[in-house]
Structures
1.
Amino acid sequence: MKLLGTPASPYVWKVRISFEEKHIPYDYVFAPPADPNSGVSQYNPLGKIPVLVCNDEKCIYDSSVIVEYLDEFGSTPKLIPESFEDRIQVKRWQALGDGIVDSAVLISRDQRQPSAMRQSAEWYPNQQKKIDAGLATMERDLGCRTFCHGNTFTLADITCGVALGYLDRALPNLEWQNLFPGLSRHAERLSERASFRNTLPPPR
Ligand SMILES: N[C@@H](CCC(=O)N[C@@H](CS)C(=O)NCC(=O)O)C(=O)O
């Protein structure tokens, strides 16, 4: 199996952590989506990374579908629980984490634009509000627990950790740690896991 992606993409990071947690071997191919020679559009009509190209040349995207695919391989640990209620809650955490990342990617991209090309003044607070409300919900739902959902590590923890790690890299001035001490402790715990350490994107 080969995974097309770049170290800067938080969605690729999420998939790479999942590969590590499942102990599944894979080839990681550096493939910037904007480079027409990267092959990304050939495998994903949407031209986005990550893309998983299986040994039978089947192509899988986006990150949530890839993780679900990987979760069927190997026995433990199960990243997405079997039971309906648990599965839905873990996927809700994923939606929250990915949603925070979506807004952070948009803001970070906009901040790198020349001022004449930047979004309007109303646009920015709207994206920021999604991040703030998303973090507040995560903080509340995590409470004092060790894992985002249930008593074991799941995809909920991966997506939460990726969102927090990505905020640190892409929007370092946000300083969310003091406002959300539970999330801050969880980010610390997650950063000590081998899967997070072995795949940590390089600093910008
Ligand atoms: N929902 C998708 C998002 C993927 C995504 O937006 N990837 C970005 C890189 S961070 C990308 O490939 N952008 C190129 C483009 O939109 O043309 C997922 O979870 O895989």
2.
Amino acid sequence: MHSVTLYHWEPNANSGKPMLALMEKGVAFDSHYLDLLGFDQHKPDYLAINPQGTIPAMVHGERVLTESTAIMEYVEETFPGPRLMPDDPSDRWRIRWWMKFMDQWLGPSFSMIGWSVFVGPAVRGRDPAELKAAVERIPLPERRVAWRKAITGEFSPEEMAESQRRVALGIRMLEQELGRRPWLASDAYSLADINGFNLAYALPLAQPALSNDELTPNILRWLRAIYARPATKACWALGRTNLVKRVTILEQPHIAAGQIA
Ligand SMILES: N[C@@H](CCC(=O)N[C@@H](CS)C(=O)NCC(=O)O)C(=O)O
């Protein structure tokens, strides 16, 4: 039994951020896997920890922490191990700039596409009455709306087009920024890279027309460098679904434009 327990789903998006930060720092933790597709996050045991019913949450001693990026910063500041935030104020600003951009603007668009192509189809075939009851138990109204749309496939063409526009713009911005330095926001590996990898690890598979070795060589170099890190390998090994197995696309030495993986 460790002093840290992390409640998480797959090493993906918000769950993967504190998972990977803990592993990079070498912090031992009890892993409590919640099956998001089985609605574990809305069950009373977990709501007692995070009443919002969203994942992840971390318990450190008596303290309960939520919000994945804020948890990563807590992990960085609380535990010894390799630094994931540099000292230089302008680097720290750039790291936080990118994390805010990804959390508030780009991430929700990736998420909408992911929910429409993965989460929705994964649960849609279940008993409708059971699904209706599960959705009614969701505490946050906005999450209830997201689940309803994923289940019924009712993301509107306008909102999907806006998400795709943001993803395309976000890819261009990432490619440009990664042409300036080895890592996303500073010369050393940082929380911004952990955040970005969780969003973009399957980019060449999810957006093959926009991201590949020919169009976005800097993004591909960056993703492969993060995937090669022992902490990333250990973290992704905890994945149980096909969603996170998509990371193995990064084992291909060259992903050509138009390649069907
Ligand atoms: N801002 C929160 C968002 C947490 C969140 O919405 N997590 C998603 C998974 S990536 C979730 O719990 N979805 C389950 C649900 O809505 O039922 C964070 O960064 O931790």
